[in-house]
From TrEMBL:
It is found in: Membrane. The lineage of its organism: Bacteria, Pseudomonadati, Pseudomonadota, Alphaproteobacteria, Hyphomicrobiales. This is DMT family transporter. Residues 15-142, 154-287 form the EamA domain. SUPFAM superfamilies: Multidrug resistance efflux transporter EmrE. InterPro entries: AA-Vitamin_Transporters, EamA_dom, EmrE-like. Belongs to the EamA transporter family.
């Protein structure tokens, strides 16, 4: 890859990642209307395992050693298991798709705090100011939303998503960066398929309605999200500081809220739009020196 191609990829990857990642909340809204959340995720991950096995068979990547396999499994449970499980359960418990992206949208603050200590990455005062600015934007988008009752269980699942995606991306950066993405992802998805299958058999009735809506959304989530957006996320983790990558998650609630407004008629008012503008400004501030 020449310098021009690398520069184009560096500019396009964050934009494409945010767009794809945001569609995950929209797609989940469709699938949980037709299936139990952990059951749907077990099916999705089994499909992805099949696709990744084909990719690995063609590419014949170098396989990680036992330690690498163990690290990949842990990263998979964090990045895919608890994060996707928490998101799906949140939406299944009546958290609107636009709002289910909000608590994970707080990830940049938590990531930067941990990265500053665990990975030794320096977060500058300007970047901290940008992170706080983004936090303010997320709060504005979150204003006047229900937080109790069934929604309370959904918010709890969203908190689990926040913690797991934060720890998962940092774990991936520290322990899995040297592992070929094709072999590593296959191990991750195989591990999380078993994780979701056990959860579905323990806690759900495993109901699935194979409607056209479910099949199309499932196909999109398996290919565009589990392979496309995760591939972009891991590429960004390899090529940028943890704080810069995490700041992109400030844009996800805004993009998801816009999509949910257009597709589902979810609430979007002037205050929320102002919050989106703050989130965009925050990402610019955090990444402007990069």
């Amino acid at each position: 890859m020449n310098h021009n191609q690398e520069a184009l990829t560096a500019r396009a990857a964050p934009i494409l990642f945010v767009l794809l990642w945001s569609t995950g909340f929209i797609g989940t809204k469709y699938v949980v209307n037709n299936a139990d959340p952990l059951t749907y995720l077990a099916i999705r991950m089994a499909i992805v395992v099949g696709l990744m096995a084909i990719i690995a068979a063609i590419a014949r990547p170098k396989w990680p050693d036992r330690a690498g396999i163990a690290h990949s499994a842990v990263a998979g449970i964090l990045v895919h298991g608890f994060y996707l499980g928490g998101t799906a359960i949140a939406i299944a418990h009546s958290i609107p798709a636009g709002l289910s992206a909000l608590i994970p949208g707080l990830q940049p603050i938590l990531t930067s705090t941990i990265a500053n200590r665990w990975l030794g990455e320096k977060v500058t005062p300007v970047q901290w100011a940008g992170l706080v600015l983004g936090l303010g934007g997320v709060v504005l988008i979150l204003h006047n939303r229900p937080m109790t009752g069934e929604a309370g269980l959904g918010w709890l699942a969203s908190v689990v998503s926040l913690i797991s995606i934060t720890l998962g991306t940092l774990y991936q950066r520290r322990y899995c960066n040297h592992i070929d993405w094709r072999a590593g992802n296959l191990v991750q998805y195989l591990s999380v398929t078993i994780f979701f299958a056990i959860g579905a058999f323990l806690f759900e009735d495993r109901v699935v309605h194979w409607t056209r809506e479910f099949v199309l959304a499932l196909a999109w989530l398996a290919v565009a999200l589990s392979i496309g957006s995760i591939g972009l996320l891991y590429w960004l983790i390899r090529h940028a500081a943890a704080t810069s990558v995490a700041s992109l998650f400030y844009l996800v609630p805004a993009v998801t809220a816009l999509m949910a407004y257009l597709l589902f008629g979810e609430k979007l008012d002037a205050i929320a739009i102002a919050g989106m503008a703050l989130c965009a400004a925050a990402v610019f501030v955090v990444n402007r020196r990069s």
